[in-house]
Structure prediction request, 478 residues.
Amino acid sequence: MTDTATQALDRTRISAILEREEAEYRRRTPRSAELFERARRALPLGVASSFQAYEPYPLFMTDARGSHIRDADGNDYVDYDMAFGVLAAGHSHAEFARVLAERVANGTCYTFPVEDGVILAEEIKRRFGCDLVRFSNSGTEATMDAIRVARGFTGREKLVKFEGGYHGHHDDVLVSIQPPRELMGPADAPTTVPASAGLPRSRVEETVVAPYNNPDALEAILERHRGEIAAILIEPVQFNIGVVPPLPGYLERVRELATAHGAVLIFDEVKTGVVLAYGGATEWFGVTPDLFCLAKSIGGGVPIGAFGGRAEVMGVIEKLPDRATDPTTGLEHTTIAGGATRVAHLGTFNGNPLSMAAGVAVLTRILTRDAYPRLHALADRLTAGCQGVIDEFGLPGYAVNVGPKGCVMFTPARVTNYRDFIGLDSELWAASFFYLANRGVLLPPGPDDQWTLSVAHTDDEIDAYVATFRDFATVLTA
Ligand SMILES: Cc1ncc(COP(=O)(O)O)c(C=O)c1O
Prediction:
């Protein structure tokens, strides 16, 4: 789409639609409003995770099945949020519900290992072609643990992450997620900008920020920090600024640079893993990291996380390497173990029977290899449908998907990194969000997230989404 098309939209009309649709949202959801008022007196922002908060108030939900979810006022929605991408297996798939009911009746936490943990680790090994896997309870824990393993393996302390990427809420990665324009610094050497108060300055200084989709800038950054970078942490598709795929050859180049600089390459597959493909982004793009992190969809709706990778790297959980020189680059390592002989990876709930049973059910019975072609076909249908509407009405933006995850990006030009994303028309996005929600099409409540399709979505639901989006475009341009 062109800038001309953007300017052609009547701003007064967008504001009027937003105002009207927000009023309708309030009218339809009084019980959520009431619960929110109560929640605000017990929980900061009235929610358990600040990601759940949005204006005027979030919907409170009561039940969900397949592709449908129902709010506290009994309104039914086709769910395209799917819990921020957790539910490629759908809500409460019958097999999932059966396995979990059986598990709940037989104990949910032992802190002794269970066979399901072995089965799940073996399944992940098969899918991702890795040697060893460990479990945690969230994506945050998975990236935190993988970074520690990388530091233990390399004996280095610094981490490279990419501007606009989100990897959880621990101190190392809670920087430069969506930094304000005035703080973000040069495009090829972004400033590390804390995304939260309460981060120690010493931690923030250990994270170096690079621009996504710019291999030359990454190379220069690695050169400037030669011998210091323990890990390069990257989400293969940037899914926290809409949908931003890697440019052709980009991930391959990142792989080469990580190897050349003796840094551990970590793929954050919390959103991509077992969703884009059977073997996640690793299979989809054909690039193999040293470590990868999983969470969300592998548990089908119960808390879970995992990380895995090459035996040599994961092996530091058993014993730190005693060499002091990187085999690839010849770079000298200085030990940061402080006398410890191995990397600690701990957690009361790691590998708990409930999460393991859930993971086994999802990966071996629901998201099996033959589930993916249909997921991809559904996604292509939705993207093509939305793009058709955009073209027909000359809307500013484009529809994009990678595998079963996609969105409409309300930006005048294609987004290749965070700096392009800043141009997104958030008022137009909000107008579309409320318009669709009021008609039973529920998207994630933020322009930085995307739809996730599940095995439970149908062609008819996709067509109804496109028809509703078309109605929105008609009202917008009438
Ligand atoms: C790419 C990515 N990594 C890590 C995380 C953190 O996962 P969790 O919320 O399970 O801690 C998220 C959460 O949205 C994510 O999208």
User: Anything to note?
Assistant: The first strand starts at residue 61 and ends at 65. Residues 105 and 248 are 49 Å apart (CA to CA). The first helix runs from residue 3 to 8.
